[in-house]
């Protein structure tokens, strides 16, 4: 399975910063094409500019959210079709920051994923336990419930990706042990095989404090098929270092 290394810029940057970052990543990619799929997910206002810079570069563009509806009276929202219009192939859905900041439920995430898939996007569906849930030993149960409720019935290996992001590892510099990552990814793989058509081939990304220094080790873990990268995706050198780490395990 080809790894996917996705940069989630969150609500960071400026038009000028985006232009510099993309130019730097593109230059590195032109010098040495790595055997991994690369994806950049800038904030909505920068999608058009980043998209035009990425044209023909072999690096995909994605959004960080979409609405369940195709259009309508939803002030401030963006539809999956609009993302497609701008050249997006992917959309991140159900990130823990949206689940917290906007009280998004797994049921809502599933209907967003259904809309995204219907519009032709690949939905990156995020799941992950909090620190308290892990300390209580509930991580498998929590992630299972999120998968059951957030992954729509029409998800396949072609139109959906799972991102396992332990909430306590996001932006904290803390990561689970390699053993804990493997155990969770095997758990998720088992659930996908049971529930999703082609679930054996659906990519499962790890996210949460992925850096150039830990990427190769994390990407080599069985059932880890790429990374969702936040903070480190804002520096071309770090994002590229992570992509190189993922490429090492591509074999
Ligand atoms: P981080 O964020 O890499 O900054 O920990 C990951 C994410 O939230 O996708």
Low-confidence stretches: none
| Assigned CATH class | Alpha Beta
Our count of helices gives 10
Instruction: Domain count, please report it.
Output: 1
| Cofactors and ligands | 2-phosphoglycolic acid
CATH topology value:
TIM Barrel
CATH architecture: Alpha-Beta Barrel
Taking the sheet with the most strands, its summary is: 8 strands, parallel, barrel
Structural class: alpha/beta
Q: Which bin fits the share of residues in helices?
A: 40-55%
Using brief descriptors, characterize the structure shown.
single chain, 251 residues, alpha/beta, TIM Barrel, 8-stranded parallel barrel, 10 helices, 15% strand, globular, binds 2-phosphoglycolic acid
Report on this model:
It contains ten helices and eight strands. With 251 residues, the protein is of the alpha/beta class. The protein has an eight-stranded parallel barrel, surrounded by six helices. Helix 8 links the parallel strand 6 and strand 7. The termini are close together. 2-phosphoglycolic acid binds next to strand 8.
Topology at a glance:
Blueprint: E1 4-8, H1 15-31, E2 37-41, H2 47-54, E3 60-63, H3 80-85, E4 90-93, H4 96-101, H5 106-118, E5 122-127, H6 131-135, H7 139-150, E6 160-164, H8 178-195, E7 204-207, H9 212-219, E8 226-229, H10 236-248
Parallel strand pairs: 1-2, 1-8, 2-3, 3-4, 4-5, 5-6, 6-7, 7-8
2-phosphoglycolic acid binds next to strand 8.
Provide a brief overview of the structure.
With 251 residues, the chain is of the alpha/beta class. It has one domain (6-68, 75-159, 170-204, 237-249): Aldolase class I (TIM Barrel, Alpha-Beta Barrel), CATH 3.20.20.70. The chain contains ten helices and eight strands.
């Amino acid at each position: 399975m080809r790894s996917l290394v996705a940069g989630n810029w969150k609500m960071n940057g400026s038009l000028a910063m985006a232009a510099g970052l993309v130019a730097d990543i593109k230059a590195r990619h032109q010098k040495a094409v790595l055997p991994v799929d690369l994806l950049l997910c800038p904030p909505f206002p920068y999608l058009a500019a980043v998209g035009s810079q990425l044209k023909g570069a072999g690096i995909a563009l994605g959004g960080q959210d979409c609405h369940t509806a195709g259009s309508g009276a939803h002030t401030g929202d963006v539809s999956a079709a609009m993302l497609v219009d701008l050249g997006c192939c992917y959309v991140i859905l159900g990130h823990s920051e949206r689940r917290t900041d906007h009280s998004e439920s797994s049921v809502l995430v599933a209907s967003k994923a259904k809309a995204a898939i219907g519009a032709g996007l690949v939905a990156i569906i995020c799941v992950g336990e909090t620190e308290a849930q892990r300390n209580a030993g509930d991580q498998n149960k929590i992630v299972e419930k999120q998968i059951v409720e957030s992954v729509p019935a029409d998800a396949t290996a072609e139109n959906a990706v799972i991102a396992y992001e332990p909430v306590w590892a996001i932006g904290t510099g803390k990561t689970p042990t390699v053993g804990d990552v493997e155990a969770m990814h095997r758990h998720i793989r088992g659930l996908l095989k049971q529930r999703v058509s082609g679930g054996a081939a659906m990519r499962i990304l790890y996210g949460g404090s992925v850096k150039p220094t830990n990427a190769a080790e994390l990407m080599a873990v069985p059932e880890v098929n790429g990374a969702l990268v936040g903070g480190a995706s804002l520096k071309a050198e770090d994002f590229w270092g992570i992509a190189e780490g993922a490429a090492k395990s591509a074999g």
